[in-house]
UniProtKB/TrEMBL annotation, chains A, B, C, D:
Enzyme kind, highest EC tier: transferase
Source species of the chain: Streptomyces sparsogenes DSM 40356
Gene3D superfamilies the record matches: Citrate Synthase, domain 1 (1.10.580.10), Cytochrome P450-Terp, domain 2 (1.10.230.10)
Top-rank lineage group of the source organism: Bacteria
Protein name, entry field: citrate synthase (unknown stereospecificity)
Metabolic or biological pathway, per its Swiss-Prot or TrEMBL entry: Carbohydrate metabolism; tricarboxylic acid cycle
GO CC terms in record: cytosol
Organismal lineage: Bacteria, Bacillati, Actinomycetota, Actinomycetes, Kitasatosporales
Keywords, comma-separated and alphabetical: Transferase
Database matches in InterPro entries: Citrate_synth-like_lrg_a-sub, Citrate_synth-like_sm_a-sub, Citrate_synthase, Citrate_synthase_sf
Length: 290, 290, 290, 290
């Protein structure tokens, strides 16, 4: 046990007297091996993958280390297709559009948008996956799904916390919910996925609706969380996959703005000016400060 | 004509006295329409796209405004699959891996890597598309492809400039060249793509090899440039598509690092220290400066 | 109480039928008022500030809303001077240096480095400020500083957690500790700052050293945490101020790399290659996948 | 001469068989030397700088390698103070404010804003410095400043190009111009700076006004360009210094938004929706695509 704490500085030493092997080992990876004339991705030569696997299957391979089944690949593809865009009212899209008018590369505009997919804007799917994992665990321990869901909803309400992945302040019913749940329901029925996360998510939706005038249907974060858990992804990769998906919309919007040629686009059309609620105009106190 | 110049400030006004329509119009887009209960992507309801189009087709739809043919979709998919990763020796990958150890979200790590795909690291494909466009234009004006290519190579050599998309300081022959050229050759032979960019690229490769002991084969930037031009993408989107593709490898590497739990990973294992070639140790000149 | 949860989408509406005032109000700020011919910063016309206040005083004004006393300004200046750089072994510096070789603007290189100052790399000062705040509160409630510090150290050790701001895996004694503590000690003695955070920090240092063969002296995060709390900054701005300070070193390093003209600099000099610990080379399973 | 071209891949090898010295040399720097217990910044021990140099002087030292004179330090300080903010109508500020509502760290919000200070939004100062350098060179070659400026204005007008650093679409007269020019005029009169860039800038301002109903006064980019050239900074660092300055405003605005607690703030208050000018709603063509 130690109380020595990491400062804002580099990482610990591998050895007192490092060798060149320590140096190359410092950057070791299981993702790819690049040598002159060779590009192995998770063990497969890249030339065998090109033209043979879909982009979604390639994403799976790179993140998971092995190829998906055809059914898994299709389900992943559907979730990636679903979340590409939510228009310029999403700050990730708006920021990328503004970046594209400031004289940066298109890559910088995409990076700007992706940078905004933080815990609040991009993290709900990841958080919902963690909630589903808890429910699945409770069921594995013998609880009924509805019982476990009711218990969890009660706990969240007592703590005045929101359950991530349900309800939408914009859509009364998220149009992406039904097609995703249909696909994952079919996959589970066919035995292509375990089905536990789907059952947990539906139980949670029922528990949330109980005793309320209107249901609180799953949103895109909830529906993709079910898909990604059925496919066995860890929660953090839920956000990672959302990043890959939303990057498509971010790029499309940034490109539209760049192609239109706007320059230094702010949030308001002129001559509208932001409101001001600060100190009244005042003079610097007398006396030479310097 | 005017010499008034943009300063580092916001964009011009739409009207002297704006209305709410000017405000919503300021953020107008042709990419998507989001209303309560509705997500239209390029006119298509999102629920019709989920499960029906591949992720690569969705990318095409979002960037181009219409769906690709099946052949176009497959060719795009192959190019996206090809460029996902080049290992931690690529700074985009290394930077993302380091970011993942600093306590940021996975989205911030991906944004960090994407931010590095600038003119030099990510722009060669875009630049090669511009070169191909010049050659195609010369051919459209009546020149033979080899003649036009020889002329262009001579011009670049005279200016001591590199032709982007050819040669690789790492791979004697880029393993991604052949499978991509095979696929685009098949597509052109089948009439699925026009074939002009392919002919221009091959003529350029021949012209570059003429009179040299070793050929200078196309690299990934050149091969994908041919594919993207055959598919009709503007050059700037060449970089955009590379960003989408490389984001996959960036995410896979960032996730590997995050899952391994390293903290504040610098480029060198300790106790190795960066070299120093600066001023010798010295004392601050005497005299109270403040 | 509600269980409706935010999805990855925009923020709530101000009113059912917004007016232009709602639009300008949406972007309201107390930081500055910009009108044609006028730039008010926290109420002061910018032309009165130029040449009259130091850059550190300007930083204080912008973040706090009022000008500091001369003593406060000097103390802030010292802390900003202290943390500018820790060399390329810091990932924020290394990532910015790599970015500068990839054909991006210098601003993108700085942004890349700043993006890495996350919870782990840039957050220790902020976290230390929270710890100091707890101790100060305990003292305000009647506890002695040493008693409160000993209790807190015991609590952290029981939870096997590190106390942020103390110890350094690189420096046996951080050379920035002593000059910063001397300055803040003088300020407290002169009545320019309250002194409570300094007393809390020193008590914590003593409590950490008790019963150990070697002390665990404050590092830069701990020393600046004391300064920033003595000056009344909230913990989150501890990270913000570190960002402003470290940006200087990030810029200096990015510029050095850019001026030297390196292109696409990876972490290792060639021909060194990253190690590989992944799947052995393998062939794609037979069977047409597409 | 070679036609081998860089691909989007890492940098060239230092040697066929590298040693550990090549590895540490790969990361060599003249900016700082960090060893256990030692932090040298441009040769000075950090503990000597803390409390002795101002933040602006530290910035100079880090970027230039030596300490400024007191007069140089004050002039740099004035320019840094001048450019900190231009309100949320600047996209760099607006994007950072939006980022702060998305659940990212304050460092990520600052990085987001800085990332937008590209060629158009942050590059005008840098470009103006290049124009001033051309004029100074012409004067050094024997031309009169007004003659050279008139020639340059004619050339730009013929090419229908803007001269960066003059005019402002927002301010009829930028309030930051006069105090900065007063200070740099005093410095030049006192012999603290050479004066050539100031004379060039004023000649350019006169040439731009000649024959026009209204003058086209220097804006902040022009005024700081004069200051930075008088101080001997290379043009690219003009953008670098603007980044350091504007980071202060970006941080102040991001913090204001974060402290207010908004979540996922888009550009428009609801229920306002972005306009739509895309394809009419349509159905996916029949036929199974998958």
């Amino acid at each position: 046990m130690t109380t020595r704490t990491p400062a804002t500085e580099p990482a610990p030493a591998p050895a007192a007297s490092p060798s060149l092997d320590d140096v190359t080992g410092w950057w070791s990876t299981a993702v790819s091996r690049i040598r002159p004339g060779e590009i192995l991705l998770r063990g497969y030569p890249v030339q065998q993958l090109i033209g043979q696997v879909s982009f979604a299957e390639q994403i799976w391979l790179m993140l998971r280390g092995d190829l998906p089944t055809a059914a898994q690949g299709r389900l992943l593809e559907a979730a990636l297709v679903a979340a590409v865009d939510h228009g310029p009212q999403a700050p990730s899209i708006a920021a990328a559009r503004m970046a594209a008018t400031c004289g940066t590369g298109l890559n910088n505009a995409v990076a700007t948008g992706v940078n905004l997919l933080g815990d609040v804007h991009g993290g709900a799917g990841q958080q919902c996956m963690e909630v589903l994992a808890r429910l699945e665990e409770a069921v594995a321990d013998g609880a009924g799904p509805d019982e476990a869901a009711t218990h969890l909803v009660r706990e969240y309400r007592a703590a005045r916390r929101h359950i991530p992945g349900f309800g939408h302040r914009f859509h009364p019913r998220d149009p992406r919910r039904d097609p995703l749940l249909t696909l994952v329901g079919q996959a589970a029925a066919d035995g292509d996925t375990p089905g536990g996360a789907l059952r947990a998510g539906l139980a949670l939706e029922r528990a949330l609706a109980a005793g309320r005038p209107r249901p609180v249907p799953m949103n895109i974060d909830g529906a993709t969380a079910i898909v990604y858990r059925e496919l066995g992804f860890p929660p953090e990769l839920g956000r990672g996959l959302f990043v890959l998906s939303r990057s498509v919309g971010i790029l499309a919007h940034a490109w539209e703005e760049k192609a239109a040629g706007a320059r230094i686009k702010g949030p308001l059309p002129r001559p509208l000016l932001p409101g001001y609620e600060g100190a009244a105009p005042r003079d610097l106190p007398p006396g030479e400060r310097r």
